[in-house]
Amino acid sequence: MSANSQPPASTLPPEAAYFRWLQLAMGIACMAMIANLQYGWTLFVDPIDAKYHWGRAAIQLAFTLFVVTETWLVPIEAWFVDKYGPRAVIMFGGVMIALAWVLNSYADSLVLLYIAAIFGGIGAGSVYGTCVGNALKWFPDRRGLAAGATAAGFGAGAAITVVPIANMIAASGYQNAFFTFGIGQGLIVFILAFFLRKPSVAMPAKKKQLNLPQTKIDFTPPQVLRSPVFWMMYLVYVMVAAGGLMAAAQIAPIAHDFKIANEPVGILGFEMAALTFAISLDRIFDGFGRPFFGWISDQIGREHTMFIAFGTAALMLLTMSAYGHIPIVFVLATAVYFGVFGEIYSLFPATSGDTFGAKYATTNNGMLYTAKGTAALLVPIASLVAANFGWQAVFVIAVALNATAALLSLFVIKPMRRAFILGNEAAQGVPECKVRAA
């Protein structure tokens, strides 16, 4: 554990102030290209089942395998990024995501579908972990906004392609949609990889942020794993991610079971089928919510923002449980829910960087990101619970998880994190005037 010495702003390359925004933009574009692997998946579930009759639960296991490999391997991929830089890892990710969807287009057995899901997870994790970690390194002074904007690419990237994919599935089959979009998305990521790099010097925070506890020490990954505050953050991450992943994977089956999938819904002069409208709005709200809540957290603090977002998520899930069979309620409630759910992908990376330092930010955030993979294990369970007790039972469980997470964020994580930062900096002899405490 060593004190993190930051150079004065005057030592930064003159292009850094502008170049880092270009790096952020390219990272966002890469994230948009992997968004469909998760958020577009729900469009393929019923067409695959209609062709092969494997059953939703068996098909959704592919989604679980994708999320598990996307998240649990990120620490390994992040180690390569911290050591060698982002370019090679992003290029590898582009190849893997293209290969995954090409395999999906030919998959005539569950085994091949699962193999494709694993390839897709490896590729998406390579891109996701690299881009978020790179944003944390370029923007120590705006971690919430930078992580949120990067994650927004993943949240909103599917918004512009939901309708084209749905139309292609209807017109020429889901296999053609898999092949065409797989090749296109992978190629764009591969090209963008050539232009991504990490900062050549440590990027300093430009101002003290008294409302944000931020360490002056760089903690190594083994040290992070030994800290109780990491595991408390991990637990809350799992609790919130479980509900969001269930909704992302099951929104189409839920709409069909509620018998509203094809019901027309009109909002502000726009009219389309409830399911298509819901997925489109979900991606827009999700994408907007990530940088918005990241920016909010830069102003009022990470844990206060978590409390607001998780509490709102619980309220929307409760609304879905009671009134989700009404088409316009289904569309609006899911949109608001995803608007507050996606912030976990901006707040937790920012909180990790604040708590454990910038030097190993990619790897440390990658370890925390595996919570998403742990949460993915609950997605098939949601299908089983729904089959036996109805979707209301699934919603009630998700409401309880989000409400509990909101309380833990404010009343447990906040004091634990402050004590961790101040205690370690005092032990390392960091002058008090340099400590940015809450």
Describe this structure in words.
With 438 residues, the protein is mainly alpha-helical. Helices cover 76% and strands 3% of the residues. The protein contains 18 helices and 4 strands. It has helices spanning 16-39, 42-52, 56-72, 74-84, 86-106, 110-138, 143-156, 162-172, 174-193, 221-225, 228-257, 274-300, 302-323, 327-341, 344-356, 361-376, 379-389, 391-427, and strands at residues 2-3, 217-218, 264-267, 270-273. The strands form 2 sheets. It has a two-stranded antiparallel sheet. Strands 3-4 form a two-stranded antiparallel sheet. It is globular, with a radius of gyration of 21 Å.
Question: How do the helices and strands line up, and which of them pair or pack?
Answer:
Blueprint: E1 2-3, H1 16-39, H2 42-52, H3 56-72, H4 74-84, H5 86-106, H6 110-138, H7 143-156, H8 162-172, H9 174-193, E2 217-218, H10 221-225, H11 228-257, E3 264-267, E4 270-273, H12 274-300, H13 302-323, H14 327-341, H15 344-356, H16 361-376, H17 379-389, H18 391-427
Antiparallel strand pairs: 1-2, 3-4
Number of strands: 4
Structural class: mainly alpha
Strand order of the largest sheet: 1-2
Instruction: Give the overall pLDDT as a whole number.
Output: 84
**Percent of residues in helical segments?**
over 70%
